[in-house]
TrEMBL record:
GO molecular function list: catalytic activity
Organism taxonomic ancestry: Bacteria, Pseudomonadati, Verrucomicrobiota, Opitutia, Puniceicoccales
Pfam family, one: DFP
InterPro entries: CoaB-like_sf, DNA/pantothenate-metab_flavo_C
A biological-process GO annotation: coenzyme A biosynthetic process
Domain DNA/pantothenate metabolism flavoprotein C-terminal: 4-209
SUPFAM superfamilies assigned: CoaB-like
Name of the featured protein: Phosphopantothenoylcysteine decarboxylase
Top-level taxon: Bacteria
Amino acid sequence: MSLRCLITAGPTREFFDPVRYISNPSSGKMGFALAESAQRQGWVVDLVHGPVAIKPPAGVNAHAVVTCEEMYAVCGPLFSECDLLIMCAAVCDMRPKIRAEGKVKKGDLSMTVEFEPTRDILKTLSAARRPEQTLVGFAAETDDVENYARKKLEAKNLDWIVANSVAKGGAFESDTNKVSLIGRAGEHLSFGPDSKAAVADWIIEQIAKLP
Ligand code: C5P
């Protein structure tokens, strides 16, 4: 029986009225490259992705979502069936407290938007993990990348975290990436800079080496 892999990719959006939102410039390229690579290496792949301009790779089960809560709702049942989760999505960490029912009028410049945290999808899923599942997170940081990445690995109870620098715009919309793979047992491997396809192949190969 084939092993199942759940991969998330791209940004999420959080709205303060029906037509306006906050988000980030994630292109989804890294997550889509991981999905393509995993599928080629024999995994059955579910790809849950936010709004992106690229097409899902052929042969993967793609699920399009918009907000953090939608991503969580789709990931929940897929997570319980999967052997490997790679949470590559740039989930919006905050959302407006109020979403106006109608479009806010152009002249309403006195408007103040208050934010609240969104759900940490990875932390919520990892709290219900089975020991034999492999969980991989991404840490995009502007400074002290590896230190913050290691903290996230522990806080989110992961097996691996992929650390990359997004200083000066960094990896977000680029076709290349340079990453470190930091493991629970203190492993520290580096790869790149190289194409996101090559980085994806390398990450999947390293993770598949796990017992
Ligand atoms: O945003 P942060 O740096 O904490 O992201 C680290 C990891 O947590 C990433 O793998 C990201 O996909 C995941 N995450 C999440 N839900 C959030 C924020 C981040 O699953 N609300």
